[in-house]
Amino acid sequence: MDNVSGYVTELAERAERRGLLREELDGYQGECGAFTDEEMAEARALLYGTEESERAT
Predict the structure, then answer these.
(1) Contact 30, 23 (CB under 8 A)
(2) DSSP character for 9?
(3) What pLDDT, on a 0 to 100 scale, did the predictor assign at position 50?
(4) How far is the C-alpha of 34 from the C-alpha of 25, rounded, in Å?
(5) Which structural domain, as residue segments, surrounds residue 35?
């Protein structure tokens, strides 16, 4: 980023994407129930790799 305006815009866009994702995840859990420990471990492994997911549990 070369300027503050671009940086702030990027932060705002990231926050918006996180908010939309949170809404989707909440909606899914509302329909299908809470994520199981196994589902959360699989998600962590996909996002951070197996080593990181093992440390998070």
Answers:
(1) no
(2) H
(3) 78
(4) 10
(5) 4-56
Which whole-number Å values give the CA distances from 47 to 40, 44, 53, in the listed order? 10, 5, 9
Question: What is the number of helices (H) and of strands (E) in the chain?
Answer: 3, 0
Coil, strand or helix at 38 = helix
- How many residues can be counted in the chain? 57
> DSSP secondary structure string, 10-45?
HHHHHHHHHHHHHHHHHHHHHHH-PPPHHHHHHHHH
pTM of the model: 0.63
* Domain tally, the chain: 1
pLDDT in tens, 4-52: 999 999 999 999 999 999 999 999 999 999 999 999 999 999 999 976 5
